[in-house]
Amino acid sequence: MSDCLFCKRDVLDLRLENELCFAIYDKYPVAPLHTLIIPKRCMVTPFELTSDEQAQLFALAHQCSVEIATSDGSVGGFNFGANIGEVAGQKIMHVHFHLIPRRAGDIAPPPAT
């Protein structure tokens, strides 16, 4: 897609990448070091990812989580997930996963379901 922000990797500040995915800091972070993990191939939902893309996306997320936790000792956990579809909060229609570092006391824990 020519108008897709995530397809214009040459203007993005890439943190890490592998053959099929790349990582950038979120432009509007909900926490310091909030990172986006993005497949290089443009698609709207994660349900379209190939098994190779899934594996590389999770491998890159793991690599980023280790780097984040190593660089910031206050990180005690992560939220990791995707908003799928406009009604679920997806704003850029190129699948991406949020890797959000969590620190003790930064927000109230979510209710158990």
How does the SSE layout of this entry go?
Layout: E1 14-17, E2 21-25, E3 35-39, H1 51-71, E4 75-81, E5 97-103
Antiparallel strand pairs: 1-2, 2-3, 3-5, 4-5
Describe the model.
This protein is 19% helix and 25% strand. A five-stranded antiparallel beta sheet has the order 1-2-3-5-4, covered by helices on one side. It is globular and about 40 Å long.
- What portion of residues is helical? 10-25%
The SSE order reads EEEHEE
Mean pLDDT, all residues: 94
Compute the CA-based radius of gyration: 14 Å
The CATH C-level name is Alpha Beta
Please tell me what the overall shape is: globular
Oligomeric state as shown = single chain
Short description:
The chain is α+β, with helices and mostly antiparallel strands. It has one helix at residues 51-71; strands spanning 14-17, 21-25, 35-39, 75-81, 97-103.
Which terms would index this structure?
HIT family, subunit A; globular
